[in-house]
Amino acid sequence: MKARVTVMLKTGVLDPQGEAIRHALGALGFDGVEGVRQGKVIELELAEGTTEQTVRTMCEKLLANTVIESYRIEVL
Amino acid sequence: MKAAVIVFPGSNCDRDMAVALRQAGADVTMVWHKDAALPAGVDLVAVPGGFSFGDYLRCGAIAARAPIGQAVAAHATRGGYVLGVCNGFQVLTEMGLLPGALMRNAGLKFICRTVPMRVETTDSVYTGGYGPGQVVRLPIAHHDGNFVADAETLTRLAGEDRVALRYVDNPNGAMDDIAGILSANRRVLGMMPHPERAIDPLHGSTDGLPMFASLVAGLVAA
Fold it and tell me: Where in the sequence is the domain holding A42, given as residue range(s)?
C-alpha cells in the first residue's frame, strides 16, 4: 500500500519561498496570482495493513514540524 | 569542565567548536551521532554548526532523531548544559529542547557575514561575561535562521528574560530580531551566530571569547 503525505506551512506562517514564486509568476505576465504557498509531498510505500494512525505518528514524530507545518494524509 | 561536541555527517563547525572550548580550558571529547551515550561526567554538550544530513527534510530534523539525540535530551532533562550553534540551534528546536523553529531567511539568500547583535540578558552561564546590552560582532552563516514562534511563545521568551541575543539590524527576518534563546532553566542556549568563529584576532572579531570563558569558568565552579 501507499500513502501520500502533504506537508504545508500553517496558515499565518509567512512563506518566503511561496512569495518569491508569486513574484516570478507575475514577472512572467501571469496576472491575478494572489497567493502562493509551497509545501512538500512525501510518498510512502508501506507494508499492507499499516494503519493511518501509524502514518499520523510518523508525521508527528518526523515528517512535519508541527510548530510551523500542518500535514494531510492520503492512503492510496 | 568536560564537554562533548556532537558530530553528524555534514557537521562542519565541530572542530572549530572543539578548538574554542579547549582554548578556554575545557576537556573536549568528540561524539559520533551513532553513539547511544555521552561520555561519563559530561557537563556541556555542544551541538555544532553545519549541514547535518544535508539539511534533508528540514534543517536539523534528521539529526534531532539520531541515536545520540536521546542522550542529549536526557542530559538536558537532568539539568545538563547544552549549547547549539547555527545548525545546532535548528537541531535543538527540532528536538523540542527549545521553542519555535528556524525557517528560510526572509530574503531567501544564504547570508555569510559578521553582524552586530545585542546581549539581551547576562543571566546565564553563556552570557555572564558580557555587559548588559553590550553590542558584539559575531559571524552568521546560514540559509535558515529566520526564527519563528507563536505570539504566546514570543511573549513568554521576552517575559522570562530568555532572549539571549538580538540582531541590531535584522538580517534574516527573525521574529523580534531574535538571534539566540535560552531554555526555561537557562542551561540550554540556541543561537544562529557563531561564537566559535570569533575567538582570534585573525577571525576579525574576538567577541566570542567571553562566552567560552564564562561558560568554562561557570561550569568548573558548578
Answer: 2-75
